[in-house]
Amino acid sequence: NGMPEITEADLRKQIEKAELDTLYVLHGEEKYLVRSYANKLIGKAAGKSFTDFNLQRFDGDAPADAIAAAVEALPFMAERKCVAVSDLNLEARSAQEISKLNELIAGIPETTVLVIYLPSVEIDYRKSAKWKAFLKAAAKYGSSVQLKLREGAELEKLLCSMASKRGCELSRQDAARLVSMCGKGLEQLSHELDKLCAYVGGSGAITKKEIDLLTPRSLETTVFSLARALLSGGYDLAYQLLDQLFFQNEEPIMILAALSSSYLDLYRARAAVQSGGSSSGLAAVFPADYKGKEFRLRNAERDGKKLSLETLRESLDILLDTDLALKSSRTSDRILLEKMIARLLLAAERERIR
After folding, report:
1. Looking at the chain, which terminus has fewer C-beta neighbours within 10 angstroms, N or C?
2. Are 212 and 174 contacting, i.e. CB atoms less than 8 angstroms apart?
3. What is the pLDDT of residue 212?
C-alpha cells in the first residue's frame, strides 16, 4: 500500500476492528509495547480454533525459505493464519537471504498475516543500512510501527490507567515519582506497579509512602544522588548510596560509568560557564549525550558551582584511576569503589577549606 510507517493509534484501531494487514513489523525501544502488540496481533490473526495449525512461530535465525513455506501454506478451516517471527536477525544474513525476505514480504497471500517483531533486538536506525532498507520495504507492502519510549505527561497518564486496570489508584504526581525512580521503560514500571498494587490491595491508593518503601531507585537516579552527596561532603549518605547500589546488584563498572558521566556533565557545564557562556549551549555541541536530556546540564550547572575546574579535573583523574584498577587490579571491586569515594570526598573537601 506504499504507506509510511503507521502510528500506534492506527495499529490499535486495526487490532480492535480485526481489519488486519498481511504484514506487520513491530520495532523500537519500548520492548514492553512491542511484545504486548505482537501478542494481540498474533491472537487476532491466528483465531481461537485450530491454533496448532494456524499459528507458526519462528526465531530470528530461521532461514527465509522456511518462513516463506509457512507464509504460503493455506490456513486450516479458517479465513486466515498467522506466521510470527521474533527478533529477526537481519544483520547476520547474507545478501541472498535478504533478497529472499524482500521477495517474501512483497508477495504475502491474503490469507496470511506475517508478524515480525523485535522484543529484544535493538536497531541502530542511523547506521544500519540493512534495517533501513527492510523497514522501507515493510512500510511499502504492509505496516511498520516504531514503538518509542513514552515521555512526560503521556507516560504518567498511561501509568495511572494501568494502575486503575489493576484496581488501584495512582495520582499523576505519584506516577511522575515512580518514573523518576525507575526510568521510562514500561517493563520495569509495570513490574513495580504489580508489586505496589499487590501491597495496597484491591481498590487501595498508591502514595509516595508505598512508592518510597517498595521501589528500588534506578541506577541513574541513585548515582545522581551519590554525585550530589560527594559534592556537598555528605560522607554518610555517599557510603549509604554505594551500599544500596551493591544491594541492588549493580555492576561496579556500570556504577563507575554512571558516576563518570555525572562528573563529565559537571566539568563541561563549569567550563562553559567560566568561558562566559551557559551550559544550555552544550546540547548543540554534544547532541548524542544531551538531546532530550537537557535537564542534566541544568542540574550540573547548579551543582557544579561549588567546585573549581581544577577540582573537577582532579575528580575525573580519580575516576579514570578507578576504571583502570577495576579492569586490572586483584583488589575487590567494592574496596576500589569505597576508596574512590573517599578520594572524591577529600578532593571536594580541600576545595571548601581553601
Report:
1. C
2. no
3. 85
